[in-house]
């Protein structure tokens, strides 16, 4: 299970979560993307699914994934929204997903779209995940905040599997600061960014990188 995390809001975590899921789908899997950002949930908007059912309904099921909705925009991935979910419910779901029989298998990767920062709500999905994909812009402040997220991820046994540097021309190398050698640069993209060939190619590169590690 992968946590998609960064230090600052607006750095592109949700776009990266969806793009990476599409890349994993292109490799022959059926990814599930879970909105773990309880304060600012917008995964349902980005993927074209209804606000409900979501986390609250999924945690009550023997097989939580049966509640997931196929994305209206990207039908190759499934989505669990978290509108009106609380922390306890979200934590319970993350724990349930982490012990599902198909958890981490090549056919059913799970991606957690995490909140920004280092709050307890941000720590909860990291605690459940196996690895973390860090998301940042090339700006110094964003990278410093992402370094804090990387340290928290390591403390919670979800060390970085890769870095996605968004709106990047490739001139900034964050690998030493974030202590992660796998870096994918995603340039400034035209709207809608997830529907460009360039986006698909960069996120597919990231997907190939993380599949070399446990997901």
* End-to-end distance: 5 Å
Q: What is the succession of H and E elements?
A: EHEHHEEHEHEHEHEH
What does the average pLDDT come to? 91
Summarize the main sheet: 8 strands, mixed
Strand order of the largest sheet: 3-4-2-5-1-6-7-8
Q: Report the top-level CATH class.
A: Alpha Beta
Beta-strand content: 15-25%
List the helices and strands and how they pair.
Layout: E1 2-5, H1 13-26, E2 32-35, H2 43-47, H3 55-58, E3 69-70, E4 78-80, H4 87-98, E5 110-113, H5 120-128, E6 131-136, H6 140-155, E7 160-166, H7 175-178, E8 183-186, H8 197-210
Parallel strand pairs: 1-5, 1-6, 2-4, 2-5, 6-7, 7-8
Antiparallel strand pairs: 3-4
Task: Summarize the model shown.
The protein has 215 residues and is an alpha/beta fold.
Structure description:
By secondary structure, this protein is an alpha/beta fold. It has a single domain (2-210), classed as Rossmann fold. The chain has helices at residues 13-26, 43-47, 55-58, 87-98, 120-128, 140-155, 175-178, 197-210; strands at 2-5, 32-35, 69-70, 78-80, 110-113, 131-136, 160-166, 183-186. The protein has an eight-stranded mixed beta sheet, with helices on both faces. Strand 7 (160-166), helix 7 (175-178) and strand 8 (183-186) form a beta-alpha-beta unit. It is globular, with a radius of gyration of 15 Å.
